[in-house]
């Protein structure tokens, strides 16, 4: 097969200019031994993943990959290097655990040594952030074709010209996730280590092949750089925009399972992005070039846009398939419940490319799934309440069927994305409030959870009603509605919303027992107060008092 080989070698002429090869040898890469495949074509990454990594092609042309032992993030193994340039900005504690510079150097060396033993080393150069004023250049160096293709989908892909003039990256990821960390190295708690160094602007991954670690690593870096270096606000949110000439923009905040992806995928609006954004002085832009969607129970009827994005170039992660016809079984959770698909954002038909809106948001929607069934389906928040709920970051998990828990469990994840924030939550909240104030943005709290009783007695608020509420926000009718006060949480709730039965707008009215409702709302209010106390040291009194009053 000499002809085919020749074509291959031509491609592997390493496409690096002298300067960049020099950077690689300085970093400790043995260029005589390894093949560097930079920004390789999708088809070539497919071939390598199938040949060397046990990947298979699904019936619709997506590449099914397996991440091994770890099928989700390892937040307990994440470290931030404690060094002079960033130590006064980082919110140290359980989210951002310290690591000393020397240990980072040991792990970095270990990762590079491992990469040097591989025949193929994959490099992907791309951008994070669609606004050229605030974007950063990212280089991913990995031992798996799967990881290269994943970041090809998740970062913003450079044009051939941008790639040729890429120069030195602003941030580098060394992904040696197939190789473990040494547990005897100071500060290592397990064989997994994910660490970020803001002085070197580097990330090292050892002992986990879960691709989401790279995506969230970039997000953490943007959560540091955007506010500290650029003075812009990074957010864990989705965003969409009305069609037409520079239509209105909405930001959706919400934790997993609250409807952030589902509600922002609106056929009448353009999708800017589904997960990570920056609210800048000139508008809103997506950080990513792709989407990383959950595929559990996915169907063409429920989520056609996502279902149809699973084609050649997309990656299915830890998804079970039928060997006879290679059709994925999205209901099978035997590997993990966290099955995923990563695809370029242009695979979504109504995506707005480039993913940037040159205008300030008109509405912010905070989503929560309240399984206690006491929060109203929609309420309008004051700027202080918006800060309070942003810092609290509430949703709840419904009891699992197998473990005998019958009570819902509350989840408070500050800034609606606690695992990824780097600065004190109060700093993001203050920037949010300043931007809302300056641009006169309306803020809404929407409960996509239970109504008429808590989990077990009430029922989940039907999606069609939630969509009607979102439509009323977008057409401006909700802002003009008549509002009344909802006690304890002191929220303003509308008396009527088109397409929604009026009685469900006030939860107290649909609970069969008034006493049971009052007991439940007091209980949830107490949980809020307890959760919020962690952040009080840096939060002003007017925000603190915007929460529930018991």
Count of helical segments? 15
How large, in whole angstroms, is the Cα Rg? 24 Å
The main sheet comes to: 9 strands, mixed
Outline type: globular
> Total strand count, please?
28
Q: How far apart lie the N and C ends? A: 77 Å
Structure, described:
It is a single chain. It contains 15 helices and 28 strands. With 550 residues, the chain is an alpha/beta fold. The strands form six sheets. Strands 11, 12, 13, 14, 15, 19, 20, 21 and 24 form a nine-stranded mixed sheet that branches. An eight-stranded mixed sheet has the order 1-6-7-8-10-9-4-5, sandwiched between helices. It has a five-stranded mixed sheet with strand order 2-3-17-18-16, with helices on one face. Helix 3 packs antiparallel against helix 5 and helix 10 (383-392) runs antiparallel to helix 11 (425-439). The longest helix has 19 residues, at 212-230.
């Amino acid at each position: 097969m000499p002809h085919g080989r020749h074509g291959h070698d031509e491609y592997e002429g390493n496409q690096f200019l002298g300067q960049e090869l020099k950077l690689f040898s300085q970093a400790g890469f043995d260029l005589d031994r390894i093949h560097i495949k930079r920004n390789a074509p999708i088809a070539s990454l497919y071939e390598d993943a199938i040949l060397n990594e046990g990947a298979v092609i699904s019936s619709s042309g997506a590449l099914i990959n397996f991440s091994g032992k770890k099928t989700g993030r390892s937040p307990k193994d994440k470290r931030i290097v404690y060094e002079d340039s960033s130590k006064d900005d980082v919110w140290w504690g359980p989210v951002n655990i310290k690591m000393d510079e020397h240990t980072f150097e040991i792990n970095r060396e270990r990762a590079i040594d491992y990469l040097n033993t591989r025949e193929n080393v994959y490099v992907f150069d791309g951008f994070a952030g669609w606004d050229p004023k605030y974007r950063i250049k990212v280089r991913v160096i990995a031992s798996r074709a799967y990881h290269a293709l994943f970041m090809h989908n998740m970062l913003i892909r450079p044009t051939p010209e941008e790639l040729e003039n890429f120069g030195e990256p602003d941030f580098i990821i060394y992904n040696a996730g197939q190789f473990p960390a040494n547990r005897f190295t100071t500060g290592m708690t397990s064989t997994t280590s994910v660490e970020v160094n803001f002085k070197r602007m580097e990330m090292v991954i050892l002992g986990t092949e879960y691709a989401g670690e790279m995506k969230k690593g970039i997000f953490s870096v943007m959560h540091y750089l955007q506010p500290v270096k650029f003075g812009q606000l990074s957010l864990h949110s989705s965003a969409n925009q009305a069609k037409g000439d520079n239509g209105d923009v909405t930001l959706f905040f919400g934790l997993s399972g609250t409807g952030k992806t589902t509600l922002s995928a609106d056929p009448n609006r353009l999708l800017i992005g589904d997960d990570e954004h920056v609210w800048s002085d000139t508008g809103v832009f997506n950080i990513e070039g792709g989407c990383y969607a959950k595929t559990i129970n996915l169907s063409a009827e429920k989520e056609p846009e996502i279902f149809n994005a699973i084609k050649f170039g997309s990656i299915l992660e830890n998804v079970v398939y039928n060997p006879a016809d290679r059709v994925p079984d999205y209901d099978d959770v035997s590997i993990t419940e966290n099955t995923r698909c990563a695809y370029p954002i242009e695979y979504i038909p109504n995506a707005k490319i480039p993913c940037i809106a040159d205008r300030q948001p008109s509405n912010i929607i905070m989503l929560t799934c309240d399984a206690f069934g006491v929060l109203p389906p929609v309420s309008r928040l004051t700027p202080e309440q918006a800060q309070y709920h942003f810092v609290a970051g509430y949703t709840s998990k419904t009891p699992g069927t197998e473990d005998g828990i019958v009570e819902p469990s509350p989840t408070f994840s500050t800034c609606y994305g606690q695992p990824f924030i780097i600065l004190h939550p109060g700093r993001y909240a203050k920037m949010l409030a300043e931007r809302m104030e300056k641009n006169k943005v309306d803020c809404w709290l929407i409960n996509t959870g239970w109504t008429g009783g808590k989990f077990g007695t009430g029922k989940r608020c039907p999606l069609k009603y939630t969509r009607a509420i979102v439509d009323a926000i977008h057409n401006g009718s909700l802002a003009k509605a008549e509002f009344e006060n909802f006690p304890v949480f002191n929220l303003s709730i509308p008396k009527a919303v088109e397409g929604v039965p009026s009685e469900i707008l006030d939860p107290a009215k649909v609970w069969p027992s008034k006493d049971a409702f009052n007991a439940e709302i007091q209980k949830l209010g107490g949980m809020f107060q307890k959760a919020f106390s962690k952040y009080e040291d840096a939060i002003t009194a007017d925000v603190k008092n915007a929460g529930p009053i018991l």
